[in-house]
Amino acid sequence: DAMVIQNPRYQVTQFGKPVTLSCSQTLNHNVMYWYQQKSSQAPKLLFHYYDKDFNNEADTPDNFQSRRPNTSFCFLDIRSPGLGDAAMYLCATSRGGNNQPQHFGDGTRLSIL
Amino acid sequence: GESVGLHLPTLSVQEGDNSIINCAYSNSASDYFIWYKQESGKGPQFIIDIRSNMDKRQGQRVTVLLNKTVKHLSLQIAATQPGDSAVYFCAEIRAQKLVFGQGTRLTINP
Q: Cβ of A87 under 8 Å from any chain B Cβ?
């Protein structure tokens, strides 16, 4: 059974047109993460929520925003996608506290026309 | 356009042989490590983890070895199968965040 679910699996948007990617979890984990992964590279952390507390990475562009309306759902908003934002976007969850493994969804592949 | 990605190290093994994938980490203070498997078009899948108070941990067909002296981690896969073809990432937990290694692409020859 899928525990971290990302929709859609594939998303196509136009240059500059806002897009929202969604993630839901059935694990009741405190922490939810968003990563960007480009071809042949490791995932790169964009930001994470610990419960309702938002934690942005220093090098995440302002173009990327996130919302977490409740424990189960988290959204990634890209306000004005550029060609360089084409990538796989991965959501992950973990329990709070130290040394907890992260569990990933299967990602949304975003293409920019 | 999309930036050019790094060329992943590749390991090719014969089906049925054992595979060893290596990883170096940088932070001697890290105390928790995870190996992930990522198949094409999927998210990273947790394989096995190890804490710094251990030097070996075994799972089903997989063994992780940790050498804290030289900051080295390895993943051993026994009797490699076609379904083991994937990119394997080691990761360390640093300040409650995952820090991924470069990744190794494992290919299985029939």
A: yes
A103 interface with B at CB cutoff 8 Å? yes
Minimal Cβ distance to A84: which of B3, B31, B102: B3
- How many structural domains comprise chain B? 1
Residue B103 lies in a domain: yes
Domains defined for chain A, CATH in brackets: 4-112 (2.60.40.10)
Helix (H/G/I), strand (E/B), else coil: A42: coil
**How confident is the model over B13-66, as pLDDT tens digits?**
999 999 999 999 888 888 899 999 999 999 999 999 999 999 999 999 999 999
Question: What is the bridge-based pairing of β-strands A73-78 and A103-104?
Answer: unpaired
What is the per-residue DSSP string for B30-70? --EEEEEEE-TTS--EEEEEEETT-SEEE-SSEEEEEETTT
| A112 pLDDT more than 60 | yes
Domain that holds residue B79: 29-109
Chain B residues in contact with A41 by the CB 8 A cut-off are 5-6, 103
Interchain pair B2, A90: CB under 8 A: no
